[in-house]
Amino acid sequence: MFILLGAAIGAFGTLIGVGGGVLLIPILLFIYPDFSPVTITAISLVVVFFNASSGSVAYARMKRTDFISGLQFSITAVPGAILGAIIAGYISRGVFQIVFGTVLILVAGYLFWKPSRRINVGDKLSGSYTRTIVDRQGIKCTYSYNRPLGMALAFFVGIVSGLLGIGGGVIHVPILTQLMSFPVHIATATSHLVVAVSTLAAIITHIVNGTLFQGLSQAIFISIGAIGGAQLGARLSHRVSPEWIVRLLAIALAIVALRLFLQPR
């Protein structure tokens, strides 16, 4: 059962550029009502890591990943993820869940109704940085974004990743497409790379803190399924229009918000 669950989560997560924790955590909360939130978060991060790593390999073969930008974002996302993982074990998330969930609902509504609208912050602010990516099919994409702003936002994404166990891609992909002017397919692939790096840092933090071991067996079996599902999701990604990838992402955001509202506090 856990392997099939992981496969479904891996396929959908990779298709929209997130780690899959957005779907996994509500399921774990239902299956294991006695598990602490920090344990469930740790389980989710393990699955997210293997899902994102597998998806990153698939996207790299398609030559859709902006490695330079992804590694630059990871420089700030990693300390953010470590900080988030540490905070998860010490504070109540009640007020944060309500505020953050409300913001996600607003963002989800915007993305669903205006999936093609982008704001090219890179052309309007100082620090404009231009990248050109040519994928395996020969499709050339050139885009510009504000690199300091992108790295600052990646730090915030890392905190959310470590704190909520959702990988962070569910927030990072809208940032890349709506604020950084990344093409959708490049954004999903690049986000996967950042998610893989940042969640690994958060997992190590949980291991050091001893908050992972209770759910380690569940994490392993779900991860096995997620690895295979991620490969399928990457292959399906070029068959789905960019607008519908963004709309699927909006639905995922709404699910995250629902999870935040309903999670026991």
Notes on the protein architecture:
By secondary structure, this protein is mostly helical. The protein has one domain. Helix content is 74%, strand content 5%. The chain has 11 helices and 2 strands, in the order H-H-H-H-H-H-E-E-H-H-H-H-H. The chain has a two-stranded antiparallel sheet with strand order 1-2. A hairpin with a 5-residue loop joins strand 1 (128-134) and strand 2. Helix 1 crosses helix 3 (37-61). The two termini are 28 Å apart.
Helices and strands in order:
Layout: H1 2-16, H2 21-31, H3 37-61, H4 67-88, H5 94-113, H6 121-124, E1 128-134, E2 140-146, H7 147-164, H8 169-179, H9 184-209, H10 216-237, H11 242-262
Antiparallel strand pairs: 1-2
Task: Report a brief summary of the structure.
The protein is built from eleven helices and two strands. The protein is mostly helical and 265 residues long. It has one domain (2-262).
List keywords for this structure.
265 residues, mainly alpha, two-stranded antiparallel ribbon
Number of helices: 11
Q: Give the topology string: H per helix, E per strand.
A: HHHHHHEEHHHHH
β-strand amount: 5-15%
- Provide the gyration radius in Å: 17 Å
**Total DSSP E strands:** 2
